[in-house]
Amino acid sequence: MQRSLILLLCLGLVRAATLQNYTVDDTSPDILYGGDIFQCNADACPAEVTEGAFNNSATLQPFAELRARTFLAVTTGSIMFSFNGTAIYASLDLVGTCAIILDGYEIQSLNITAAQAVAGERGDIAQSGLANGLHTLVIDPRTNPTLIGFDHLVYTVPGKKSHVAAIVGGVVGAVVLTIAALFLALFARRRKLIIRRNQRKSAVLRAINSARHDRKGGEEDATQLPT
Ligand SMILES: *[C@@H]1O[C@H](CO)[C@@H](O)[C@H](O)[C@H]1NC(C)=O
Ligand SMILES: *[C@@H]1O[C@H](CO)[C@@H](O)[C@H](O)[C@H]1NC(C)=O
Ligand SMILES: *[C@@H]1O[C@H](CO)[C@@H](O)[C@H](O)[C@H]1NC(C)=O
Ligand SMILES: *[C@@H]1O[C@H](CO)[C@@H](O)[C@H](O)[C@H]1NC(C)=O
Q1: Is this structure's pTM higher than 0.70?
Q2: Which of 28, 187, 212, 220: CA 20 to 30 A from 120?
Q3: Ligand 4, from 97, 108, 118, 146: best to mutate by most atoms within 8 Å of Cβ?
């Protein structure tokens, strides 16, 4: 029983060590722009440009208030972002050619013509399976002009629990441990009680047996006497 409890606790720990995605908006101060940017929103840009741009949904989104005002950064310069994690994802509106550079190495080349862009083609960046640590992504325009419409990116951090999850996990863990300890104590007590009762029972039985034996012996003696 103790073994299955330990197994349960281990399962709980494994469940807690899940991956967490973080979304970073184009308006985040962590995004470094190497050239001029033009912030596109519903007022400044035609609907076709901002249509489908990221809007805060159920996921973690630290810049929700800014997001409400700005949909998209349009630039012809480079875009740089550093993060601690294991994966990075982005989807760009792009006309032109970009090199995608991660930690100094070109991992991808994106090339989208104006006709392709109008047809709805986007430049998708996806790199997972990185060593957990500090990484730097650079989106680097390689032809002039290259127009980048940057909305947001997503990076993945392993083993990050929210405070609420940690507290809930801690409370649930404590309750489980307390119940387990009570259960074990009860189990041990019951076993001890049963052993003690059995001992007492056998002692009583022994006493009865020996008493019966003595009486039998006496009767036998009595019957034996007259002969
Ligand atoms: C994180 O986001 C990427 C891209 O949207 C997705 O492929 C991945 O499954 C997500 N991971 C988690 C843990 O949500
Ligand atoms: C973002 O989405 C929420 C609901 O999901 C909506 O109420 C809000 O108007 C949207 N914001 C913008 C700027 O589209
Ligand atoms: C990455 O983690 C290191 C060590 O914890 C920290 O010093 C650094 O500021 C972090 N960088 C970013 C971009 O989060
Ligand atoms: C991009 O693709 C177009 C055709 O789709 C091609 O003509 C052009 O040379 C490419 N540019 C680069 C830099 O690869």
Answers
A1: no
A2: 28
A3: 97
d(CA 227, CA 223): 8
pLDDT digits 0-9 by tens, 90-103: 999 888 999 999 99
Beta bridge partners, 135, equal 83
Distance 145 CA to ligand 4 centre (A): 13
Q: What is the pLDDT of residue 109?
A: 96
CA distances from 186 to 181, 193, 201 (A): 9, 10, 22
Contact (CB, 8 A) for 77 and 34: yes
pLDDT value of residue 5: 54
Residue nearest to atom 2 of ligand 1 (CA): 21
- pLDDT, one tens digit per residue, over 152-210 is 999 999 974 556 666 677 777 787 888 888 888 888 888 888 888 888 888 877 887 78
* Secondary structure tally for the chain: helices H, strands E: 5, 11
| Gap between the terminal Cα atoms of the chain | 67
Residues pairing with 46 in the sheet: none
Could you tell me the two tokens for 180? 């387990």
Ligand 2 center to residue 57 CA distance, Å? Answer: 8
